[in-house]
Specification:
140 residues, mainly alpha
């Protein structure tokens, strides 16, 4: 039993490392690493991915200076951020630099998340397979 616990701890560290590598590769932030679930509570990949999608809507750019810096570096003409705001039904009088930067940040994070989806699914499947093996060993 003690050996199994060490193995699980090592695997969690390896899994965390793999998720962090995906974060760097795709420039995304992964809020939820699946080992936080018990096997019985583990969701299918699509449910897990939906959680990651929802997390992108928590991204927020605050402070005028941060917003202007982000927009200057990522959308100097404001075309992309204004386009997103228009798609979402915002009216001109409700726009400001923080909102435009937030919308652009969220869009870029969502796009990167979709670029990473296949790799995330492979890693998630690896996690589920490992959890099932551990559960079988534990039951023996």
């Amino acid at each position: 039993m003690f050996v199994l616990l060490i193995t699980i701890k090592q695997y969690k560290m390896e899994l965390t490392t793999k998720f962090r590598e995906l974060e760097r590769k795709y420039s995304i932030e992964i809020e939820t690493i699946p080992y936080e679930y018990d096997l019985e509570d583990a969701k299918d990949f699509e449910s897990y991915f939906e959680e990651l999608e929802e997390a992108t809507y928590q991204i927020e750019c605050i402070y005028y200076s941060n917003a202007i810096k982000y927009l200057t570096e990522n959308d100097p003409s404001f075309n992309e951020s204004l386009g997103i705001a228009s798609e979402m039904g915002y009216e001109v009088e409700n726009l400001n630099s923080e909102l435009l930067a937030t919308l652009l940040m969220q869009r870029k994070e969502m796009e990167a998340l979709y670029e990473a989806k296949d790799d995330l699914e492979d890693l998630y499947d690896e996690f589920i397979e490992y959890k099932e093996q551990v559960q079988k060993e534990y039951e023996q």
